Amino acid sequence: MSWISVLILLTISASLRPPNVSAQQYQDLSDKTLMKTFGKEFNVKISVVKNLLDGQEYLKINTVQPDKTYLGLGFGQSMTNAQIMIFIADGTQSNAAEYFSPRATRPTKQDNQNLASTFKQNGTHVEFTAYRKFKPDDVNDKTLSLNSLVNMIYAFRQFESSESVTLKYHGGDNRGIFKIFVDLSGGISDASGEGYSEDDSFDFYVYHGWLMWVSWGLFGLIQLASNRYLKMYWKVNMWVHRLSGSIIWILTLVFGFIAVSKADWEVVNSLHTIIGFIVTITVTLIVLGGVFTRSMMNRLRWKTHLILKIKFGHRMFGLALITLSQFSILTGGLKYSTWAEYMKPLPITHISIFFLTSFVIEIIHQRYKTQEQPFRVPDEIMTMEEFKSKIQNGSQYVLLDDLVLDVSKYMSNHPGGRFVMEYNVGRDISKYFYGGYILENSGGLSPHYHSNVARKIVNSLIIARIDQKPFQFMARIVEKSDVNSTTATFTFRIQKQAGNLIQFQLPASNDISTFGKHFLVKSIANPRVKRQYTLASCMNKHIYEQYVKNIEKFTSNQDIQGIDESFINQSSYNDNADIYLTIKNYDTRSGLSRLIHQQKDVFEIKALMGKGLDVQRQGTHLAFVAGTGILVFMDLVAFILRQNLGLLQGSDNQILDQKNFKFVLYASFPSPEDSIGLELLQGLQKITQMQELKNFELILRFSNEFMSERWNAQFIERQVEIFTQNKQIKKIWVCGPPMMNEVFDRTFEEISQQYDLDRSIVEIL
Ligand SMILES: *[C@@H]1O[C@H](CO)[C@@H](O)[C@H](O)[C@H]1NC(C)=O
Q: Where does the record place a coiled coil (predicted)?
């Protein structure tokens, strides 16, 4: 080992050793020393001494403090960027050292120590004597000078004898600021009264922590709940959502940005500052997103798919932000809980409770959704006429089953957007509600089955029911007769029910007010799926055959026999009575039609419901129908058939005006084989022409045939043009698959002004 290396080692070991603290080498400069007592038991003596070895001035600090305590004395006015001398009294483990505190949190020990200290301890107290150079070698350390004011901070904490002494937070009371004056001769005097630092950041971080917890922990949960779980309280839930969102927004902006500014905009400082900063800057985006979503929900028309996408975006963004903020609470809580004992279990407790609560609520919600709350039965009764006149006068009512709902206030809260509700004012919304149909087909939307939450909302909207209460009964299928390859007429036999005599009567075939009304059918095996099937008595095999026979006889000039409808015109129906429904098999996995076609289950039926066709005595009635849509009109066709065959009795001939009633039927089927009731339709057409009557016109289309006319907007407009010439269109019915319905719906909306069409005459069935 060479000389040089020995020298270097000696130099290094010398520089690592704390400065020499032998009291003899220091000389008091002035006898003017400062005595201060912090709390009751922390006694501090500060004076200036000269080191005889290096000739430099030193601050001499003498503390007498109880064992198991710390005392911090720092330079500056707050803990931000403060150099702090910390005297830890811990029996024989006592020590003093210089720390640096970048901000309000726990300070860290400095690498280069300017403090030389010794201590004495007698079991109950520790006495420190420490020297700190006026002009430290490191330029970053605080430099002191004679004839100057020095701002100082202090803080202390006492620990139980069982505790270990660590740098835990001292609390808001055990701290303060003071000012010393060092005069030219090295005398020290107190230059201030005691006071508390205005700018102690730790208290801010405590508020910050609690307020962010309130924002995202409590109000975050409220945001989730108001948007997802409390939809049934539609009158208030969006206000709660808005209010709670605003609170989160403001608190996060204010306390988030103050926190970032206190950290000197050093965002990449810890996981907490990174997550916190992301939450702070994106919270405005989610608020704007919410405002935007609401506005789009109220504004967009025929764009439900877009509304749902926007809502999805807002929901996902919100969920992400709420989740992220929980981690911000966790990281922030863990960071500051080292300072205060009571905080320690909070972050983990919060996270556990938050996610557990969310999970439990979600499960309860999912269960609730699949239950079935029965609809409220209102006392108020409204006739169809009253309903219509209310609509004419601007009331915003819709029909659901036999219930009248006032949706005027609810519209803007409808999850699918305002438009779909507004557009259906005055209409029967049952088929949409039960998920059989959809108003708009664009954007790959499929019909929406409304959950129990929606049923609960419906209950809050019910204002009346239409006419008489519908009947409800159980039935099972006893007979099936095919109409075509996919459609069949089923005989449902009413089931005996213990003690209850069911009295149900199929409407008489001359009761035109029942035409187009429906049966609501659900299976016992899968009660969630409900479908509406229209009453079409003439589709009963036995009756249908009589009609066909009469048409044949009439067209070949033979005597007709009339129709025996005895089995539908019974005075009352009891147990074991039959009901006939013609139903197409859509053959979807959980579909009701498949169950019916399998004839396996027991079904619950509610009848008769809906608006029906509301056939007028006079005027032109247009119907555009495709496929099974024809069933809605079959009884009307049969009625006109009886009229034109001369089978109606007496005043029944006056039900439809002989001269001024006209029914124009546009019927579309894929092919003659796949048609429904074709013999009756074509038979009536023939008989009407033979008699030179004007009350029925059939425009038949087979869509599979080459060159079949497309029912597009131009076609629709042309038909309307033809029949508006004599200004007598009383009704336009459309009943086909969803796509077709939508084309008609939108076309009528566009042309209604041009042709002076009252939109209330258009019914999309
Ligand atoms: C220890 O020292 C302190 C301060 O000098 C004194 O007040 C205390 O009585 C002493 N305790 C014992 C047990 O001597």
A: none
User: What's the pLDDT score for residue 37?
Assistant: 92
Task: Give the separation between CA 552 and CA 539, rounded to whole angstroms.
Answer: 17
Q: Separation of 94 CA from ligand 1 center, angstroms?
A: 16
Sole residue written with tokens 């000197």: 264
Cα 62 to averaged position of ligand 1 atoms, centre (Å): 15
Q: Which atom of ligand 1 is nearest to the CA of 122?
A: 1
Q: Does residue 165 sit in helix, strand or coil? A: coil
Would you call 623 helix, strand, or coil by DSSP? Answer: strand
Choose one of 322, 347, 370: the last residue of a domain.
Answer: 370
Confidence class of residue 17 from pLDDT cuts 50, 70 and 90? very low
**66 C-beta closer than 6 A to ligand 1:** no
Q: How far is the CA of 122 from the centre of ligand 1 (A)?
A: 6
Q: Please name the residue whose Cα sits nearest to atom 6 of ligand 1.
A: 125
- The alpha carbon of 127 and the centre of ligand 1 are apart by a number of angstroms equal to 10
Domain, as residue range, for 709: 619-764
C-alpha to C-alpha distance for 517 and 535, rounded to whole angstroms: 6
Instruction: Give 448 Cα–ligand 1 centroid separation in angstroms.
Output: 82
With a 6 A CB cut-off, is 62 part of the ligand 1 pocket? no
Residue type, 114: N
CA of 194 to the centre of ligand 1 (A): 27
- Regarding the beta carbon of 122 and ligand 1, being less than 6 Å apart is answered yes
361 Cβ inside 6 Å of ligand 1: no
Residue 195 lies in a domain: no
φ/ψ (deg, to 5) at 12: -65, -45
Residues in the chain: 765
- Ligand 1 atom closest to 123 (CA): 13
Mutational test site, ligand 1, from 125, 128, 129, max ligand atoms within 8 Å of CB: 125
Q: How many domains does the chain have?
A: 5
| Continuous segment of H or E residues that includes residue 520 | strand 518-523
Q: Which residue has the tokens 């209460």?
A: 469
The reply to whether ligand 1 has any atom less than 6 angstroms from the CB of 571 is: no
* pLDDT the model gives residue 756: 79
Question: Strand, helix or coil at 582?
Answer: strand
Which amino acid is present at 355?
Answer: F
- Distance of CA 161 from the midpoint of ligand 1 (Å): 17
Regarding the beta carbon of 566 and ligand 1, being less than 6 Å apart is answered: no
In a domain, 614, yes or no: no
Could you tell me if 185 and 136 lie in one domain? yes
> Do 445 and 573 fall into the same domain?
no
Chain Cα centroid distance, residue 701 = 45
Ligand 1 atom having least distance to the Cα of 64: 4
Instruction: Check: CB of residue 65 under 8 Å from CB of residue 89.
Output: yes
Per-residue pLDDT at 85 exceeds 90: yes
SS3 of residue 487 by DSSP: strand
Which 3 state secondary structure label does DSSP give 231? coil
- Confidence band of 633 (pLDDT split at 50, 70, 90): very high
Q: Does 64 contact ligand 1 (Cβ within 6 A)?
A: yes
Q: Same domain for 455 and 476?
A: no
pLDDT per residue as tens digits for the range 263-285: 777 777 778 889 999 999 999 99
pLDDT of 480 > 90? The answer is no
Query: How far is residue 595 from each of residues 370, 372, 585, 591, measured CA to CA in Å?
Result: 20, 21, 9, 7
Residue 498: what pLDDT? 54
Residues 595, 696: one domain? no
pLDDT value, residue 140: 81
Q: Comparing 8 with 561, which gets the higher pLDDT? A: 561
Has residue 69 got a pLDDT over 90? yes
Helix (H, G, I), strand (E, B) or coil at 604: strand
Residue type, 627: G
> Per residue in 190-234, pLDDT tens?
887 555 454 556 677 888 889 999 999 999 999 999 988 988 898
**Run of H or E including 480:** strand 471-482
Pick from 124, 126, 127, 129 the residue to mutate for probing ligand 1's pocket: most ligand atoms within 8 Å of its CB.
124
